[in-house]
Amino acid sequence: MPGPKLPRMALVDHLGITVDDLPAAIAQFDPVLTALGYTRFDADGSVAWSTGDETEIILFPAREPGTGPHRHGRVGWQHLAFDIATPAEVDRLHRIAVDAGWSVVREPKPYPRFNERYYACFVEDSNGIRFEFAYNPPR
After folding, report:
1. What does the DSSP 8-state code read for residue 9?
2. What is the pTM of this model?
3. What DSSP character marks residue 10?
4. Between 123 and which of 84, 86, 96, 97 could a Cys-Cys bridge form, CB atoms 3.0 to 4.6 Å apart?
5. Which domains does the chain have, with CATH numbers?
6. Picking from 36-40, 43-47, 53-57, 90-94, which range would have the lowest pLDDT averaged per residue?
7. CA-CA distances (angstroms) from residue 40 to 33, 36, 47, 49, 90?
8. CA 20/CA 25 separation, integer angstroms
9. Which helix (H) or strand (E) holds 33?
């Protein structure tokens, strides 16, 4: 006899990010998200990237220009971590982000304090938006 049907787990459908300068943010986000396999969709007043079946990432212009950048460690956004398939891919994405103008927060390296398999890097765009590219395979 089958067990009770469990409710569907809620997943993140989309993530909206407010940026100070939309064209500049697009120039930083597009190479990174494209390298991650996302496809770009331009709309009136915003731009989005989607893989079709994963979380969509949308950039919106600030309603009050000049109110950024976000400061890491303050209430609000912390960082978004992407699950990356290999350490070499972490390195490649790091180079793409830096070439697109993202600042290096932490170079690619092992993070044994998380676990012995963890390898990651952290980058931040001009709006203070922080991404992590993380290789963290299961045991």
Report:
1. P
2. 0.88
3. P
4. 97
5. 14-63+76-135 (3.10.180.10)
6. 53-57
7. 8, 11, 7, 4, 21
8. 8
9. helix 22-35
